[in-house]
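ARCHIVE CARD
CATEGORY: sequence design from structure
SOURCE FIELD: tokenized fold
FIELD CONTENT:
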């Protein structure tokens, strides 16, 4: 772990690279930011607090969370709670940042060994091209190199047939085989926005008024049992993807999430201008996350607009 001033600069470079590529690929990001500016909710994009970012990985020995997390642990992130997703065959952890102005990170991993033999072979035919942990070969102090790594193909371009086979069994597997470590979403913290927009309920109303489509799996608002964490998300936009041999197909790209972290009961007496991150509900919630994953699933992306 390295928390020196240098590593903060490297982390800034890596996060900046991720957000730039993400914003280019997901038109909803700029569209939402522009709508927020036009409505006077914020003055500029920098006024948005990024609650967390998320990545997806494949659970094979040389990849997965064990490999991926080394990047952010190096920048001073700390590994926190574990989450288990039975039906989706996923494991996940969240990581708290070295300083409160950096986003939390949520990383999930597909339990590949629980898939059918066919799907496992198919995934391994790609991931076997990565013969040793690629993060071990990276200079983590070189922000540009890490940025390049997060956006480079780790294995050959999949065939459309393989993508579709995986899609039938695990939408998550299909997403990662094509999208790899591309940022899956960034998350707008709504609780610090002005009155009228500072809850997920009111922010959802603003989004829908502007025509953004929300994931409605389990309801448009996902709420933790303690009532402290409320989340919603857009439905991933389809991107024209190029597969092996030049075949093209429209697949799910990334999406945008919204989070409201309520003030913990112990700090309810604090005046609003003294509330900081440590006074609010921390972490994630498995049942919320289970539904948010579906922002890239066909049941959401192919839903008819009412
Ligand atoms: C992550 C879904 C879960 C959250 O905040 O609980 C999540 C994903 O779609 O990869 O983002
Ligand atoms: Ni999220």
């Amino acid at each position: 772990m390295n928390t020196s001033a240098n590593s903060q600069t490297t982390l800034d470079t890596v996060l900046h690279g991720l957000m730039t590529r993400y914003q280019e690929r997901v038109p909803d990001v700029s569209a939402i930011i522009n709508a927020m500016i036009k409505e006077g909710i914020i003055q500029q994009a920098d006024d948005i607090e990024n609650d967390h970012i998320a990545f997806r990985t494949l659970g094979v020995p040389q990849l997965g969370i064990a490999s991926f997390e080394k990047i952010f642990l190096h920048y001073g992130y700390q590994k926190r709670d574990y989450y288990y997703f039975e039906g989706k065959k996923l494991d996940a952890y969240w990581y708290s940042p070295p300083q409160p102005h950096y986003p939390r990170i949520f990383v999930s991993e597909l339990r590949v060994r629980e898939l059918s033999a066919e799907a496992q072979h198919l995934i391994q035919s790609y991931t076997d091209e990565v013969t040793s942990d690629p993060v071990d070969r990276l200079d983590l102090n070189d922000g540009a190199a890490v940025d390049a790594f997060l956006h480079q193909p780790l294995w050959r371009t999949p065939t459309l047939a393989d993508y579709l086979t995986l899609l039938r069994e695990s939408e998550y597997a299909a997403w990662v085989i094509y999208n790899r470590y591309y940022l899956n979403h960034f998350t707008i913290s709504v609780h610090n926005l002005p009155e009228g927009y500072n809850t997920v309920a009111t922010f959802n109303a603003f989004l829908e008024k502007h025509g953004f489509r929300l994931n409605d799996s389990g309801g448009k608002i996902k709420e933790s049992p303690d009532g402290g964490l409320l989340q919603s998300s857009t439905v991933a936009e389809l991107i024209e993807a190029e597969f092996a041999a030049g075949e093209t197909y429209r697949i799910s790209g990334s999406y945008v999430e919204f989070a409201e972290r309520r003030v913990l009961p112990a700090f309810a007496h604090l005046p609003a201008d003294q509330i900081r991150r440590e006074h609010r509900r921390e972490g994630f919630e498995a049942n919320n996350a289970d539904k948010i994953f579906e922002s890239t699933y066909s049941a959401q992306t192919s839903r008819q607009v009412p």
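CARD ANNOTATION: The mean pLDDT is 96. DSSP finds ten helices and ten strands in the chain.
SHELF: design records, drawer C
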